Amino acid sequence: MNCLFCKIVAGEIPSTKVYEDETILAFRDIAPQAPTHILVIPKEHIPSVDGVTPENKAVVAHIFETIPAIAAAEKLTGGYRVVSNCGPDAGQTVNHLHFHILGGRVLNTQMT
Ligand code: AMP
Ligand code: ZN
Is pLDDT of 111 > 90? Predict the structure, then answer.
């Protein structure tokens, strides 16, 4: 499958990993929008939030239970934002489910 993040999971494209276990991977965004900008992905290919199902929902829960540990390791003591863009109107550019963790500065409060 011609998926950038599947290639990162496979090690075919390099990434700066910050967390990895059997089912998920977290790595630094190549074009950071904040001092800390990390992407957390399931290792299995799920196209977007729209692709979350009863069969794969456990990996999404696991991502969310791991995000606070990643944020703590990154010392995001002032808080952080978790974002997932789903589909073209939201500006999703990589069609493999991912959650952005953004922090390290006061973030713009505008959500749109
Ligand atoms: P989105 O626009 O929500 O689909 O997010 C995709 C993100 O992937 C963007 O923030 C990109 O900067 C990031 N990105 C694209 N290619 C790479 C790469 N090779 N390594 C790390 N991050 C990447
Ligand atoms: Zn993929």
Answer: no
pTM, two decimals, is 0.98
Enumerate long-range contacts of 33-37, CB under 8 Å, 24 or more apart.
33/100, 33/102, 34/102, 34/103, 34/104, 34/105, 34/107, 35/103, 35/104, 35/105, 36/74, 36/76, 36/80, 36/101, 36/102, 36/103, 36/104, 37/100, 37/101, 37/102
Annotation says 98 is catalytic: yes
Report how far ligand 1's centroid is from the alpha carbon of 30 (Å): 6
Test site for ligand 1: of 4, 38, 83, 94, most ligand atoms within 8 A of the Cβ: 94
pLDDT, tens digit (0-9, with 9 covering 90-100), for 55-67: 999 999 999 999 9
Catalytic residue among 45, 62, 98, 100: 98
State the ligand closest to the CA atom of 41. Answer: 2
Q: How far apart are CA 9 and CA 69, in angstroms?
A: 20
